[in-house]
Amino acid sequence: MLTTPADTPVTEPVLALVGPTAVGKTALSLRLAERFSCEIVGLDSMQVYRQMDIGTAKASPEERARVPHHLIDLVDPDGEYHVARYFKDAIAACRGIVARGKTPLLVGGTGLYLKALEQGLFEAEAGDEAVRLRLRARLAEEGRARLHAELAERDPASAARIHINDTQRLLRALEIVETTGRSWSEHLAGQQGAPALPRLLKLGLLGERAQLYARIERRVAQMVDAGLLDEVRSLLAQGYPGSLKAMQAIGYRHMVNFLAGAWGWEEALRLLARDTRRYAKRQLTWFKADPGLRWFAPEDEPGIFAAAAEFLR
To answer: For the structural domain made of 129-187, what CATH number should be given?
Structure first.
């Protein structure tokens, strides 16, 4: 079944501020929201998890008091959250913001979520529960590597974009090909969805690479100083295993490996900074492929504000 937003578009203007991690989106988004009477809608696949605040760089309580934020703290760390749910939640949030006479401002770095809002979303039918249970049993028995290798044979494009640790999407991709006879990639390629946000201005932040890497180093230090290790200790103490999808995210898996004795402290921090840089590069690769993005230097606030003003006018 192709889920498209053709019958549910948000026809009012919507702004989006995107870019790689640590580029400066949060601070700028607050000023942008205050200037143009916006409420912020998260565009981040990790900030939906409760109790995972420091490692996901959520806006602080003080920042959220300045501007209302949506799609933060929606599920527990062991809860399921996927692009289909994000699609529904984001549209509902935008509708509520518009009803209050404000402008939605999407802020984050999860390009897949933005793509879903722009191009529609494929979801297979409810699926076969027997298939789902069988795949979960195989995952427990055979492991992620075997199932990921099978996906690479049956749906190479999906296997290329789904990390081996992302078991939720790995199982989903295999379920789709088994229940429909076609790969997830084929379904996505064939969709002809109308945009859910037909009046969308996409603003991208792009600075010099050396400047971005310096910001990443500062971000890592700030997270550590803010108590990232204690945040992970608390999650583990509550019974959330380090093998959870959410706990395998950047920052969290590094602290988990340190606490398990796999890495020393300095090694954990070095790998955290390295992996954050690599993640930022992947984000940039994704966003640079979008011809509809208007790029600005993070410090070019006048240019960004002028573009927003012209669009909203």
So the answer is: 1.10.20.140
